[in-house]
């Protein structure tokens, strides 16, 4: 599965005349290996450095911006002031889900169902608005911290 995703993303970048360098591939592999962990740029950088010591933090930031621009990943802020990243827009990986964020320990739990589809349809019709995405973050205390 990962090789197919890497191949698809490589092709997507090349179609837009962007190079798929070995450094970008290392960053992509770290994202794939840590799917669902909502890593920040610094965490991604530290993991990439283990496999590719020549990759700099600026390369990680630029690559994350590029991947966002091409809808390969999405970024979000869970209230801690840091952008965190997850896959989105890649065929077969783009689905609406929501996040539960513990305000004590910072744990993030994905709710893998679209709870807002009905509301999204109503809003779209009522306001003649083409909705392309949404995010729902619910803050509270997880069961470990209660």
Structure commentary:
The chain folds into two domains: 2-87, Orthogonal Bundle (Arc Repressor Mutant, subunit A), CATH 1.10.10; 98-140, Ferric-uptake regulator, C-terminal dimerisarion domain (Dna Ligase, domain 1). The chain is globular. Helix 2 (22-33) crosses helix 3 (41-51). The protein has helices at 2-15, 22-33, 41-51, 57-69, 117-127; strands spanning 39-40, 73-77, 83-87, 98-102, 108-111, 137-140. The protein has five helices and six strands. By secondary structure, it is α+β, with helices and mostly antiparallel strands. The longest helix has 14 residues, at 2-15. The strands form two sheets. Strands 1-3-2 form a three-stranded antiparallel sheet. The protein has a three-stranded mixed sheet with strand order 5-4-6, with no helix packed on it. GO terms for molecular function: DNA-binding transcription factor activity; transcription cis-regulatory region binding; zinc ion binding. Keywords: DNA-binding, Iron, Metal-binding, Repressor, Transcription, Transcription regulation, Zinc. It comes from Pelotomaculum isophthalicicum JI. Fe cation binds at residues 96, 117, 134. This is Transcriptional repressor.
């Amino acid at each position: 599965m990962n090789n197919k995703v890497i191949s698809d993303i490589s092709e997507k970048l090349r179609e837009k005349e962007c190079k798929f360098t070995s450094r970008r591939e290392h960053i992509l592999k770290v994202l794939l290996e840590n799917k669902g962990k909502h890593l920040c740029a610094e965490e991604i950088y530290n993991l990439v450095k283990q496999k590719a010591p020549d990759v700099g933090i600026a390369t990680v930031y630029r690559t994350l911006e590029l991947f966002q621009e091409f809808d390969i990943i999405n970024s979000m802020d869970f209230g801690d002031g840091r952008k965190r990243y997850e896959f989105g827009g890649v065929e077969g990986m783009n689905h609406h889900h929501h996040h539960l964020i513990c305000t004590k320990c910072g744990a993030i739990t994905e709710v893998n169902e679209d709870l807002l589809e009905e509301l999204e349809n109503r809003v779209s019709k009522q306001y003649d608005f083409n909705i392309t995405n949404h995010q729902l973050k619910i803050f509270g205390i997880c069961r470990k911290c209660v």
